[in-house]
Each structure stands twice: as C-alpha cells, then as structure tokens.
Specification:
The chain is built from 9 helices and 10 strands. The protein has 224 residues and is an alpha/beta fold. It folds into 2 domains: 39 residues, no CATH class; 171 residues, Rossmann fold (3-Layer(aba) Sandwich), CATH 3.40.50.1010. Helix 6 runs parallel beside helix 7. The longest helix has 14 residues.
Length: 224
C-alpha cells in the first residue's frame, strides 16, 4: 500500500499505529487477551532508556461490594471507576494494566449504575456471585471466594507480575500471602480511606486514593 508506514526491527513503531490498534480493540470489545502487534514491549526488544517496569503487567482485583460501601460513606459518585486506577500513578507505577476485575452481585451493580451512571464499570470485567434477597436486604454468596480463586489462579499462571487488591477486608490476608508464593508481587489499594494494618503487613506495597484527589481531578462528585 502506497505510503504505508514500515516497522524496522529494533525501533519503536509509529505511535499512530499504536493508537489505531487500541481504538480497534476498544471497538471490538476485546480485553487484554490479545497482544498488541504494534506494542514495542511485546516485540522482544528492549530499547535504550526504556523503563523495565513498563515490561511488567498488573491485574487489579476489586472487592466491589466493599468499594461501593466506601463510596456511599463518602457520598461520592464516580462516573467511570477505571479512571481511578489508570490515572493514579501510584496504582500502576507505569506498568501495563492487563485487566481490572470487579466482584459483587447483580443487585449491587444495578444500584451502582443508578448512583454512578451506566459507564461506572466501563472497561472493567464484572464477576458476579449469587445475591439472595432476604428481609434484611441482599445476602451475598461466593463473591469473596470468586475473587480469591481468580487472584491465586492468575498469580499461579503468571498472567501478571503484580496482583493489586482493592479492598479494606482483612479476610484476604491469607490469599495475598499465597499469591506471593508464586513469585507475584502484591499491592493493596484503599479508596477514600486508609488500608487496615493487617492488610498493609501482608503485601509488598500499599497505596491510597483519597477522596480529595478524586473530586479535584473531576473523576467524581459529591452527592447531596
């Protein structure tokens, strides 16, 4: 094709091709399974001055019900949750975010979309447990078990170099330790409040995304 750009081995491809690939992947609704053929970090070449962290992949596992509780306590509406992780540098530290998982039940997803909008979980893979309606509200079943299963599976399969848990629930302490047994580094992120000490002591690093930053960056707004 006349005027088509050429890729030279050992040189990063034109940024325009990377943009085209990313746009095509979004239009196709694909996640992180297919490699980007124009991504220099996947072409087997390390370039002078390249940050080695950029060659590593992270996966983010969000305790969805716990997070929704935190946002409600802060009276905060977030239009698109994924932006908190992609735009807050301490969350990924320049590494590729291979995938973001969100664990909850359908009833909670329906409520979240009413509060935060239809795009709240855009770009995030939702994993649903069973929501059982009781006189006292919705009782969740198997949600935490699904998160733990995916967390350990992806670490054991080496699908990521770092596993990031977004939760304040100390029940995940042992699961984090098991992830490290497979050589995967771990992080725990807190949103709108500090991470409990037990979780801090169980992982390699901790970061916290404060409410003020979310509002100041226009990723969220205060509810009346």
């Amino acid at each position: 094709m006349t005027g088509a750009p050429t890729l030279k081995r050992g040189f990063p491809p034109p940024p325009r091709l990377q943009v085209v690939w990313q746009a095509a992947r979004r239009m196709a609704g694909l996640g992180g399974d297919l490699p980007n053929p124009y991504d220099p970090t996947r072409m087997g070449t390390i370039y002078p001055g390249q940050n080695m962290n950029q060659l590593k992949r992270v996966m983010i596992f969000v305790d969805g019900t716990n997070l929704l509780f935190r946002l409600a306590a802060e009276k905060l509406s977030v239009s698109r949750l994924s932006y908190l992780f992609t735009q807050y540098h301490l969350a990924h530290r320049g590494r590729e975010i291979a995938r973001i998982y969100f664990y909850t039940v359908q009833q909670k997803v329906d409520e979240a979309e009413k509060i935060h909008g239809k795009d709240f979980l855009e770009g995030i893979r939702t994993v649903l447990g069973d929501g059982i309606q009781t006189p006292g509200g919705v009782k969740e079943k198997a949600v935490d078990a699904l998160l733990v299963a995916d967390l350990i599976y992806h670490a054991a399969s080496r699908n990521c170099d770092e596993a990031i848990l977004i939760s304040h629930d100390t029940d995940f302490v042992y699961a984090i330790k098991r992830v490290e047994d497979f050589g995967c580094t771990t992080a725990v992120g807190g949103i709108c409040s500090a991470v409990p000490e037990r979780l801090k002591n169980s992982c390699d690093r901790v970061f916290e995304i404060p409410t003020g930053w979310i509002v100041n960056q226009n990723f969220g707004r205060r509810l009346p």
